[in-house]
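Posted in: Structural Biology > Protein-Ligand Complexes

Title: Requesting predicted complex, adenosine-5'-triphosphate in pocket

I'd be grateful if someone could produce the 3D structure tokens for the following input. Sequence and ligand are given below.
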Amino acid sequence: MDWHARSVETTVDQLDTDRDGLDETQAAQRLERYGANRQRPPAHRSAFERLISQFRNLLIYLLLAAAGITAALGHWIDSGVIAAVVLINALIGYIQEGKAESAMAAIRGMLAPEATVRRDGRRQTVDAARVVPGDVLILEPGAKVSADVRLIRTSGLAVDESALTGESVPVDKTHEPVEAGASLGDRRSMAFAGTLVTAGEGDGLVVETGDRTELGQVTEMLSRVETLTTPLLRHLDQLGRQLAVIIVAAGAATAVAGVLLHGFSPVAMFMAAVGLAVAAIPEGLPAIVTITLALGVRRLAGRNAIVRRLPAVETLGAVTVICSDKTGTLTRNEMTVQALLLADGLQTIDPQHSAPQGENARALAEAVALCSDATIASDSAGETRVSGDPMEVALLHLAAAGDVDVEAWRSQHPRVDSIPFDAGHRYMATLHDEGDARWLVVKGAPEAVVPRCDGVLTDAGTAALDEAAWHRRAEELAGRGLRLLAVAERRSDGAALDLHQDSGPDSLVLIGLVGIIDPPRREAIDAVAASQRAGIRIKMITGDHAVTAAAIGRQLGLGDETRGVTGEALEAMDDDEFQRTAAGRSVFARVSPAHKLRLVEALQADGQVVAMTGDGVNDAPALKRADVGVSMGRGGTDAARESSEIVLADDNFATIEAAIHEGRVVYDNIVKSILFILPTNAAQALLLVVAVMAGLVLPVTPVQILWVNMITAVTLALALAFEPAEAAVMERPPRPGDAALIPPGMGMRVGWVALVMLGGTLAVFLGEQAAGRDLAEVRTLTINTLVLFEVWYLFSARRLHASTLNRGGLLGNRYVLGAIAVIVFAQLLFTYAPPMQLLFDTRALGLRDWLLAVFVSLPVVAVVEGHKAWQRRRQRRSADAPQG
Ligand code: ATP
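-- Reply #1 --
Done. Output follows.
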């Protein structure tokens, strides 16, 4: 359709609507007729494709090749067990990945988009799915356009259409029709679904919704599937490739040595090499990592942090600096006017109980009633309801307390033009019709408004303005943590007042300053303290006054600065000084979004891992640049949300701290799984290597080792994904951003555990064999000893540093207990069930055998706990040692 070429009038007629939009009944009827405004969900990979993708892994190819060759050699049991290992592993991966995908999908559902429309002549926020053709969509900076619209009014409107056209430079929009043949990017009279408003504002008539929008037509864009890959998974992939090489080499060397040195048969040696390979390959690891991350995502959602990109969970655990906005995140965003500073002095007020006093206060109340986008209305019960920006709401309460009937006052002074508030110029101006005169009202940050004033309103009319004196008094108020707003006006009798001259309004008369309190959130104070204990530095970055910001910073425990670093001061710094200031100071005030980006870059250059919050459209670059961009689910814009990794459903700083806590737990659990898998797999493989090299009879058969690997890899290690947080997660410094998968000092533990397991099982095998027992019996005992080693080690692996020899350590994770129950049951079957005895050549064992197995394997706990205790002592010592 060529909506872009039609005039506004034709469009209005054809859609059978008007410029004020539809009414609710019409909207409901149209919703019925046109359907919900939703794009087709992204094409999901089919279940079969997902299953097949589980096999795309080098180590799995290795296993499949081994299965093929063993089958060709007629070793059907071995071949079957290898195939079972591969299949079970793929199935678990498949199920877990499915869970992870649906967890991500459910979480995306929590971010249901909203749209602002005009209906019944009123501005309303509705679920974007309920937008219908004929609706008037109100476009504001940061909003995502939710349907294709023909613009009917624009004021400096610019839209980022990169989602649709790939062109990243915002397009200036107009309401004038354009040529019928214009390409998508040139249809300047239209705004399209999925694009983002970057500046200005406008109204658009909805012409197409759902799949009929331009975005809905571009199907391939929507079929993108969220990939579940993370840097950690890539690291693991790399580890897998290296392991594959080592394993193949070790297997080949062992087999060759067996044949040449000890005269074993080539087929037996090939089978041993296959067993070795299967034993050593950590095939369960990718599934474990995915499920651990997905569990983290779910737990985070329960704590009000919605993860948009999976890798963020991992990065969260490494955050060293949080840069947070003040208003609404660290503070409650519940604003109350507490003081008025007028020419005749300071009035401390409480709008709930006392009215502002005097002529000047009245003038101020009348002015703020007009220069505000908040609305006030009486509901059916006679209650007045005020809605809008919390600060403007506070001002309307002030006006109401001053006996201004806001609604009547507004209709007596209709607004004819306005400059909306913007964090760049920090004021808002409205122009009102007074019959043959015009009345201009401006409110904004004192630094932005006072310099535009020539005079000040006093009881005796306009007097000269002593800027320095006002500045001093303003700072006194700011020092109490009050947010300041200057209110000024200008009246013109008949002469035109141009609001849109480049330099903004001037020649104003200052009416006074308003001091507004916005107390810190209680839980933010606690979260700041907790983060600091966890070695994380907090920086407050705000558009507010430098002295106000510092006062709030002190209340939050951010330090004792009396004045924040201002954006202006930052601008004057060279790169070195900037970087030092960014690292050293904690309150940044009157900062613009461009400074935020520079701050992130400077902190990153200093080696920090930065989480940055943001809500406005201009925050997008800083959010994208930060290691973890955090946006606001309630107060934020769509643009900020789309650029962020994490959305806070409750806009609360404390949630960031909770998210970092979860991120650390997730990372810990992955490390724990790796620390569990590596020595167990190594011991399994080494058992075969050592036996062959020494020319011994194999202590366990290849098919037995396959069995152990199959059941332990997917049960025991997986249980660690569910490990609850350790008590001290937030008492230790963040892990370095480039930390190795295996934390320092842990390599030694892995080595010790592998050696102890190897030594213990070999000793049992050799001892019992020397006693002249039946080989099959001794092998059954050896295998069970190996499994018991792994069971005990699992308990100790639950905690990296703390002891597990206590109630919580032994019983704290019911998944561990469940996995162990499964293993014990499986081993009993393996040992006593006749079909299993046939398959694996096992024999029933007696009580003495079991006692021996426990006796030999249990000491592994002492080894690990001893290593932990030694490490703890060393750490304490180095902490106590004098620095320098
Ligand atoms: P942040 O959310 O970044 O912590 P903030 O909300 O305090 O900071 P801004 O919204 O940029 O920062 O506001 C900066 C200053 O602009 C305020 O201190 C106030 O003086 C002024 N201001 C804020 N909102 C408005 C508004 N709607 N109209 C006029 N002036 C405003």
